[in-house]
Specification:
Number of helices: 4
Distance between the termini: 26 Å
CATH class: Alpha Beta
Low-confidence stretches: none
Radius of gyration: 15 Å
Helix content: 25-40%
Order of helices and strands: EHHEEEHEHEE
Strand content: 25-35%
Length: 150
């Protein structure tokens, strides 16, 4: 599958909200006080976008996911990486991590960081791709992971 990374355009937010809700609502309801909120999601997304960048992931011009990225302490902080459920498990991670590593190199960052809930299957994917656990969040229900640049 050939995946294309495009900079986020304003009209694409509703898709981002939907995919975020589909993928994250259960985790947020389970671990975050107050649970899922479309308003809180929008606020957080645009706060991060104001200091970073978002990319939509497309196959044949169909949006299948997105990335929300900032740079914090010289690390590319992956604030959000979401793939529509019907495209998960199809081997897209190689292209996504290649894109992220090229950003790390282009921005001259020291590496990448992210947070993932312990019971999210993506945690194993990050470990397989060289991320190491460096801390925890949300009362120990999530881990902070880091991968240093080559």
């Amino acid at each position: 599958m050939n995946i294309k990374f495009d900079e986020f355009k304003e009209g694409e937010y509703e898709f981002i909200l939907e995919i975020s809700k589909n993928n994250m609502k259960d985790y947020i309801d389970k671990y975050i006080k107050g649970g899922w909120s479309a308003k809180a999601n929008r606020k957080s997304f645009y706060e991060k976008l104001n200091i970073g960048k978002a990319y939509t992931l497309k196959i044949k011009d169909e949006i299948i996911g997105y990335l929300l990225l900032t740079v914090v302490d010289n690390y590319l902080d992956i604030n959000d990486i979401q793939i529509a459920k019907e495209f998960q498990g199809r081997g897209l991670s190689k292209a996504i991590f290649s894109f992220l590593e090229s950003l790390v190199n282009n921005l001259n960052c020291s590496g990448m960081k992210l947070t993932v809930f312990n019971d999210n299957p993506a945690k194993k994917l990050y470990i397989r791709n060289g991320f190491k656990i460096i801390g925890s969040r949300f009362d120990g229900n999530a881990v902070i992971m880091k991968k240093n640049a080559h």
